[in-house]
Amino acid sequence: MSVVRRSHERGITTLALDAPERRNALSAPLVGELADALKRCGEDDDVRAVVLTHTGTTFSAGADLRDPPHPDALVALLRQIVELPRPVVARVTGHVRAGGLGLLGACDIAAASHDATFAFTEVRIGVAPAVISLPLLPRLDPRAAARYYLTGERFDAAEAARIGLVTAAGEDADAVLAPVLDGLRRSSPQGLAETKRLLTAKVLDTFDRDAAGLTALSARLFSSAQAREGMTAFLERRDPSWVR
């Protein structure tokens, strides 16, 4: 059963994460299927840009704790979005947590409706936002990143726009995106590809420098005793042992 829904209209391919019963969590199958769909978009001359969105009320709840992707696979997916020779635009009308925020960081443009909420919840289960920091830290306001990384607090779409997590927020994400998609349709494929290359150069430098170390950190943390307690507590809907 497919977990990524594809549609195409006037040069724009939309890829919708379609596992709402799992809150579009980043499972190994979802990450693999999304990577395959993006690869096809990058090879298709009819695709001017890609919109990454979701079904259900959650864009992505982060890593699927029951069937997580290998950290290497998540790094590869994030880098693929950054390197894709087509602009990738996130359309968010629901909640985004933990690893799902890495997808937003990798996208070139992101629009969110006022219904969207965001949180870096890794610290609350005993791990850190390691791999997703590769595209996020070059884009986020440093003081805001420190606050939300360390506390796991939830914040709204207006705050997400203020700190650089999303490009713009509004009552209707489609209304926010309408002029963006019109502009992309009016732009040449060569112009878009080379301009994106300029814009993502510093993000890719971060991947080249830090990917191996952050992947190792992620693997170490997820295999730790505190992470096992944190994930068990999450699945059992209780506070972990360290909560005071």
From TrEMBL:
Pfam families: ECH_1. CDD domains: crotonase-like (cd06558). It comes from the Bacteria. Gene3D superfamilies: 2-enoyl-CoA Hydratase, Chain A, domain 1 (3.90.226.10), Lyase 2-enoyl-coa Hydratase, Chain A, domain 2 (1.10.12.10). InterPro entries: ClpP/crotonase-like_dom_sf, Enoyl-CoA_hydra/iso, Enoyl-CoA_hydra_C, Enoyl-CoA_Hydratase/Isomerase. GO terms for molecular function: catalytic activity. Belongs to the enoyl-CoA hydratase/isomerase family. PANTHER family: ENOYL-COA HYDRATASE, POLYKETIDE BIOSYNTHESIS ENOYL-COA HYDRATASE PKSH-RELATED. This is Enoyl-CoA hydratase family protein. It comes from Streptomyces apricus.
